[in-house]
From TrEMBL:
PANTHER family: FAD-DEPENDENT OXIDOREDUCTASE, PYRIDINE NUCLEOTIDE-DISULPHIDE OXIDOREDUCTASE. Residues 49-139 form the Rhodanese domain. This is Rhodanese-like domain-containing protein. PROSITE patterns: RHODANESE_3. Residues 143-173 are annotated as: Disordered. It comes from the Bacteria.
Length: 173
């Protein structure tokens, strides 16, 4: 359903007391997409084979040992400036992740990689949302996979009665 400009509802909501122009909103959201990706898109790129980037886990050694995204390179943020050039070729695109949306470790890591000249994106949601989406997790003991969290992903358990899915569906948005 399309709402014509003449039919648009005017609001007195304080939420819209200050609002960006359409041009500013377009620039803002385009920029966010240039800097960020979600776990579903990263997963899809990795599953496709040649992702075209290196996925970097920027968490601590203890967090890495507990579990990580299969195929990720481990490079804690505090070591990026000194060690990145020995692990990742100059100018190689990088996607970074940390624990989850409640920390800014991935943003700090992204800044470090940008300072070194790498094209870089942050994986929104980090490792927490990777696990919540039900994607494979690797540890020193092997691979595991949790059931998708029905609040973050659609699975056969989360579909209405009679609905079916063959497994996790990329991004429930």
């Amino acid at each position: 359903m399309t709402i014509a400009a003449s039919d648009a509802v005017q609001t007195s909501s304080p939420l819209f007391a200050t609002v960006a122009t359409n041009a500013d909103a377009i620039a803002h959201f385009r920029a966010r997409l240039a800097f960020e990706s979600d776990v579903s898109d990263v997963h899809a790129a990795l599953e496709a084979g040649d992702a075209g980037f290196v996925l970097v886990d920027t968490r601590s050694d203890a967090s890495w040992a507990q579990g990580r995204v299969p195929g990720a390179v481990h490079l804690p943020t505090r070591r990026i400036a000194d060690e990145a050039s020995g692990l990742i070729g100059p100018g190689t695109p990088v996607v970074v992740y940390c624990w989850g949306p409640g920390c800014n470790g991935a943003q700090r890591a992204a800044l470090e990689f940008a300072l070194l000249g790498h094209p870089v994106k942050e994986m929104l949601g980090g490792f927490e949302y990777w696990v919540r989406e039900g994607f494979a997790v690797e540890s020193d003991e092997g691979r595991t996979r949790a059931l998708p969290d029905p609040l973050t992903n659609v699975s056969s358990q989360a579909l209405p009665s009679g609905g079916e899915a063959a497994g996790p569906i990329s991004c429930a948005c």
